[in-house]
Structures are given as structure tokens and as C-alpha cells.
Amino acid sequence: MFHKPGRRACRINRQQHLGNSSIRAGGGSGSTAHTPLSQADMRAERLSPLLALGLLVAGIRSVHCLPENVVVKDRHRRVDGHTLASSNTDFAFSLYKQLALKNPNKNVMFSPLSVSMALAFLSLGARGPTLTEILEGLKFNLTEIQETQIHQGFQHLLQALNRPRNQLQLSVGNAMFVQEELKLLDKFIEDARVLYSSEAFPTNFRDPEAAKSLINDYVKNKTQGKIEELFKDLSPRTELVLVNYVYFKAQWKTRFDPKHTEQAEFHVSDNKTVEVPMMTLDLETPYFRDEELGCTLVELTYTSNDSALFILPDKGKMQDLEAKLTPEMLTRWRNSLQPRRIHELYLPKFSIKSNYELNDTLSQMGIKKIFTDADLSGITGTADLVVSQVVHGAALDVDEEGTEGAAATGIGIERTFLRIITIPIRQKRCARRERAANTHL
């Protein structure tokens, strides 16, 4: 299910196989027919690993897009919203596939917007190969777009997403928590404030429990209580933590009637079912049946005129669909949607949460140096900082009223310590060779 709120935030969630799906659709002549999803037995099919591809960060294309009339200018070069959107969409799909691979048969829900913006924020302080790895890992083509343009693109995206809107709650922001005696470069502080609207809080990481509470309480407040514990632990060696958060809440334009919500069988696997609250709705809405890939798509609209795209794979088609999923396919689906009357649309009512440590995942995506031999000298002026952890949390509620979701990403940064490894000294007398020792200075 893709959540596409116009210029909104986006996230991603992946569910196990949830059985058969049912949509009773009316044809153009007013007749009633069942869509061939496998068995039209009035049970919801999987809310799908593809729910991960959309709902929490509201529409991969839109969420990462600048408004269409926004153009960032830099030394006579320009980058429009579509350029930024393309890179961010590629990153979202790449991250989704990595998480789905690492979490087979489990929910995979995350906000690509939150992760990408946090890493872009970090890149303000990166230099040399470390900077290149981060930006290329975010799928930016550095032969076509300059670093300055990337940061300005995120700046305009933040401004666009945080504009007040009727009937939609949406907020996106950044913050940094700085060890009290750590001296940051003035340029890093100013760029963080201007480009990423970052707040800054002095923090005593030598008391890690107090520091953890300070950061987690900040995130909990910004996400309306949805993300309660972003960091499970912090090292007393931490010098700096960067945080990004996303929160949104929207109501369906055509709401589900709670009186029609009933307990129904939900197929978790081919041989396991559970009872869940199943919502039902009769409405006309954009619809597309993809016979080639074996899936059905239905778009539901919010009162703000943003929308959520539900992808319902046929039984046994989930893995094949995931393998073939691309940004181009999503665009083709969107362009193929046509209004259609659906007499009986079934959707589970659910609440889900997820937490990830992303160090290994990002390394597999090519962002490695930040964890080992990082050059983050743009933060303090010295190349003695390294990323110790990247954590991410997301939460999503879907009910009769609408959708509420939140996500946050945290990047912990520590000082590196120079290790000098001595080589055993070979003595002249063989009898004394065993007395040579290694020493760490």
C-alpha cells in the first residue's frame, strides 16, 4: 500500500501473507462483478509487504518531491523537484528491498524520507570519500547535481512539507544533541540551522541514561507519542546525536462506518488465520487491475485530497511482485488508475510498529565509511568522529477515521581513538622470543 499525500511524508511497511483478498467492483454498465484476485471470499488479502512501500511516509513520489513550481538555483545550475524526487525514490526502493530481505515473513515499515533526510543532514559534516559515499548511497548522481543543490533541495522540501494545511496534520523536523564541551564549527551550526531547520540541545552523554531520556522524550513529543523509544541505549562516549522526525495524521474523505466493522478471518499464511477487525466500504474510487503482475490497486482519498494507494497481490504472487517492483512500475500503476465503483471493499483495522538498527543495512547499500574510517571533519574541524549507530523507528495506525503515522531516525556519533599496534620484537637469542609483547599505547 502506497500512501500518497501530495507533498507529504512517506513510509513503508511490510506484512506477511494475509490470505485472500476481496473487492466487489461494479462495471461501467452498472453491473456487479468480482475481481479475479484468487478467491472472492470476502477476506482481505495481504495488506502486503508493499504496505511498506508507502503508508508511513505517504507516497514515495510525493513525499520526496518539491512542489512543482520550486526550482533550486546554484551558480547558474538548477535542480527541480523531479530530480530530488527521482533520487529519493530510488533510495526508498533500495532500502525497502534490503529490509525485506533481512526480515523475511515479518512486517517491514519505515520512512525513507526520515532516513534519507537524516543522512543528508549528516553529510553536511562529511568530507572526501565519506561525503561521496553518503550522497551516492542516497542515489544522487554527483555528475549531474552538486552537493549544495542537494542540501538546498532538502531545505525547500522541509519548507513545503511544514506549510500549514487544512484537514491534514504534518510535521517534519531535525535536531542535534551536542556533548556540552564539544566545539562545533560555526559553519556546521549555521548550515544545520538554515538548511535543515535544526534545533540544538546541549547534552551530557557522560550520563547516558539521562541523555537517552532527553532525546527519546523530544522524539516522543514531536511524534505525538507514536515513537516512544527511538534509542534503546547510548554509549557514554557519544559526542553528538542527529535526529529526524516525521508525523502525519489525515482523515478519509469517505470514512468507514464503525457499525460495519466486524471480526473476520485474516490469513497470516496458507495454514494460519487470525481474527481481526475488518472494515468495509462502498464507494467509487480509482482502480486498476494488473493482469500481467497479478495484483489489484485501489486508491483511497483523504479529506485533504491526498491519497493512499493499496496494492493487493494475488495469492502466491507476493515474492514475484516484490522482485519486479521499481519506481517505473509505480508510475505506470498510478497512470493506469481509472474511477470504478467498488461495492464491497475490505480493509483490516490495524496498528503496527517497527524498530531497526541500520548500520549493516546501510553498509550493504554502499554507505560504509561513516562507521569505520569516516571523515566528518566538517563538524568539528578534526577527523576523529565516527558514526556508532543509526536507528530508526516507525508507527502506523489505520482505522475507520483515517491514518496516523510517525517515524524517526537517530544517528549517534562518537570520537575515534588512535590504536597503535606494536609488532612483537624478535630478540637475538631464540630463548627470549616468547618474551616479546604487544602493547596498546
Automatic annotation (TrEMBL):
Span list, region Disordered: 1-36
Pfam families to which the protein is assigned, alphabetical: Serpin
GO cellular component: chromaffin granule; extracellular space
Ranges of Polar residues composition bias in the record: 13-23
GO molecular function terms attached to this record: serine-type endopeptidase inhibitor activity
Localization annotation: Cytoplasmic vesicle, Secretory vesicle, Chromaffin granule; Secreted
Subunit-structure text: Homodimer.
Entry protein name: Serpin domain-containing protein
Species this protein is from: Bos indicus x Bos taurus (Hybrid cattle)
Organism lineage string: Eukaryota, Metazoa, Chordata, Craniata, Vertebrata
Gene: LOC113879933
